Fold each of these.
Amino acid sequence: MRAGRATARRFDTKTLTVVGDPVTLSEGEAGEERGLTLSASESGVVAYSNAPDIRTAMTWYTRAGAAAGTVPATGRVEWPELSPDGQRVAYGELGQAFRWDIWVTDLSRGGVPMRVSSDATQRAAPVWSPDGSRLAYSGTREGVLDLFVRQAAGATAEQPLLRSADGKFATDWSADGAFLIYDQISNVTGFDVYALPLTGDRTPRPLAQSPAAEFQGQLSPNGRWLAFASTESSSPTQGSDVFVQAFSAAPGKWRVSTAGGWQPRWRRDGKELFYTEGDSMMAVDVRESASGFEVGRPHALFTVRMFYDAETYRTQYSVTADGQRFLVNAMVSEPKPPPIVIVLNWAALLK
């Protein structure tokens, strides 16, 4: 990809050098940074398709589903995260060269956006520290998605939290500040939920790990319970379900969703869980009990066409502490499937 177009160049396998000038293979408006999927065959045929033009807006919704305004942003956004005091929202925004940066919009000042990261490294999926002073996120400084932290004001350099061979996405920060919850992408078990201690020897430990995919880990406000999505019991139509288990090694796991679900979020008092089931925002009463954990009957609050991220699996909405308002990365319009374009004898362009 170069300036939004697919580009080919001859390569000499003996000298391991490129030869001649680059040749543009795909059509499209120069400068578009929406991405492109391309496949080349040995017969001289190329098929490609531009990514759909996805337009979203961080939109406020009440529990009844009434739209209540939007949060200003300068471009396409993902992963909105409200600060603990509800006065700011951190998110990823797509910039030049199809690169994601971390931004923060100050809601108390009428929605003033500020870019926190601003170099050539990809950064994604921010989460707030409990005091709202720092942001943890994923970055590709070493070529793989590692975990970093920096001041939310962006005045200081980022610091590495965890580097390893597997990709990682932060999903939550415990209320006591002791643990960062994150998804790890393994070549063996796929998506798993881990906890990174932020003190002591800082050795990560798996919380939910199996041949199924476990992701979107969210720790309860009192730190005792972990909510997450898993494909372990899903059907082809449901995809995944929401579960709760003890954060400690204690046995027991409770299924929260009844007809599929993901993207769990806790209410600040820990007495209600939210998740999405298709386009429905769901809520369910939960409580601790002598037997461990009890789950009520899920019910739909409202429906909204939310953007779903099939690459990071990061949650695309945030909820206020009292559970009364939801900040959703909502689709502005339904994207039209782009056409598949066939190019014949494309190698002739390189001669």
Note: The chain has two domains: 7-51+341-350, 56-331.
Amino acid sequence: MPGPIADVTVLDLSSGMAGSLCTMLLADNGASVLKVDPPGGDPLAKGAAFRVWLRGKKSVTLDLETQEGKDILFRLLPTADVLFETYQPGVAKRMGIDYETLKQRAPHLVYCSLTPYGQDSADKDRPAYDGLVQAQMGLQTTQPGHRPPPIYMGFAFPSFSGAYSASYGILGALHARTVTGRGQFVDASLRGGSIVMNRWGWAAIPPEEGGAPRGEGGLTRAWQCSDGLLWTHTGARGSYERMLGALGLADKLPKEVLAASRMDQTMTPAQRSQLLKDVEAVMASHKRQEIMGLMDDADVPNRPVLRAGEAFNDEQVKAIGGVVTVADPELGDLREVAPPFDFEKTRPTTPATAPKLGIHTAEILGRAGYTAEDIQGLRFRGVI
């Protein structure tokens, strides 16, 4: 059964992680995504992860630095609904494929640009790696770890949030087109996606305005049991006391802080340090499943800390269809994260594997009216 956007065709001119993630979401839900790469391929599409992020797409090679390459792109525009790119601001205009140019040829086109800092930012020309956006958006100072922050995040938060926000923008513009009949420009950025999703620090008072350092988070953390790690959360009222009681440590809590609503913030550093050592000792002397039983009985939220691959075997992940097996001609059967949405009437089929570079070029150009002789000549001249 086709996905909910099976009638949408996307020209994907993006490069790297964030772009590939964005159009993977569209392809997972039925869109026909034509991944347009230079003849040598996307230099940033390296590593096993791209076998997942490129799934379900068709691969076309096209040198857009040449006039012939641009002419081919122009001939593809009438049947495309979306053009998506990740060029540095100003590059698409220099190449003659920016929105203002293309909308003259295809007023119906939704044109989305995903950049690090946005089109009009003072930082638009600065280099931007994921870690730089993390730093500027305050993400590294809110990342918990085994030492005080700042801490580099363990996953590419800005790239993921930017990819998701760009896909939302594209879908919103497509919906608006059903009313207006016209496309529009969508300006998405890694910085914009990050600030929207970084809600944890919004209420914090900056140090220059009198803000104090954050507390250590009470008993919300990972604990080493005798056979694995366990995460507990004591944010709910009363869960702090219930957890200590379940572990037989209720008498270890200083009497002078029992009446406080946030005990982790009213204890002295010495008291907190000793209590944490006591909890660690109990945790280390029991198996994880045993501690989980105690926490469940005491109504303290808890979950085992698993490695990323182990999550594929979780019964609840299986229950929601969170894993899909994709047949890869090079690597064999790959267990991958399934499309994140489950639609009652338009659930997408299992995604196809990542395509070989340029394998669909002749097919797509043939649809655009190019003959086999034309295509052979373009290949000879290095355009495709």
Note: Residues 149 and 194 are 18 Å apart (CA to CA).
